[in-house]
Structures are given as structure tokens and as C-alpha cells.
Amino acid sequence: MPRRPDHPRHLRLPLTWPTIRHSLGQDAALQLPDGIEWLNLHDAGDIIAQSGLAALAPAVRDEPVSNGISNPHSALRYVEKQPLADLIVKTGAL
User: Fold this and answer.
1) Are 40 and 53 a contacting pair, CB within 8 Å?
2) Given Cys at both, which of 6, 24, 60, 82 links 53, Cβ 3.0 to 4.6 Å?
3) C-beta of residue 83 within 8 angstroms of C-beta of residue 77
4) Which uninterrupted H or E stretch holds 63?
């Protein structure tokens, strides 16, 4: 799949929060463009990303992870998770 530089490759928004979805004009189920594979890593201890998105966007693949208790929202802790590495290898994103 070719890269689309005009679209962000990731967002770190609490999309399960109704206020955030409303501000983005997404009050209904989230719809993904064709060809997008969305992996949602979430940690129950991360107040921003503590729950899955599949209930709001059926095309999203939720993957619960454990980032520890000292800084569960750390981007570095999410980036080092195996499910993300597997997706990068699968899509040839690097």
C-alpha cells in the first residue's frame, strides 16, 4: 500500500470519549477508509487509551497491552510492543 503523506499515520486521541468524537464530527461509528488496517494498542492503566475502539469502529483490531504502572501512556512503551512490530513487518512500513 503506498504511503499517503497527506494523512497522519497515527493519532493518540481518546476516541472512546464522546466529546472528542463529537469535535471530530464522528458521533456515529467510526468509519475507516478502504485499505487502512488500524491496530489499537491500549493499556487499562492509561487514562487516555484504556479501552478498545472495536465497539466504535468494527474494522479496528484492539490489542490490550501492559505498559507498567509508572507511565502507562508512554509512547515508547506502546511502540516497543510486539503486535505493532508484527504489523510494521506485515505492511513493510519501514
Assistant:
1) yes
2) 60
3) no
4) strand 61-64
Q: Using the structure block, give the residue that is written with the C-alpha cell 509508572.
A: 70
Q: Give the contacts of 52 (CB within 8 A, at least 6 positions apart).
A: 16, 40, 42, 60, 62, 64
Write the pLDDT tens digit of every residue in 35-53: 888 888 999 898 887 788 8
Around Cβ 72, how many Cβ atoms within 10 Å? 20
- Segment (H or E) for 74: none
The identity of residue 29, as a single letter, is A
Does residue 12 surpass a pLDDT of 70? no
Cβ 15 vs Cβ 51: under 8 Å: no
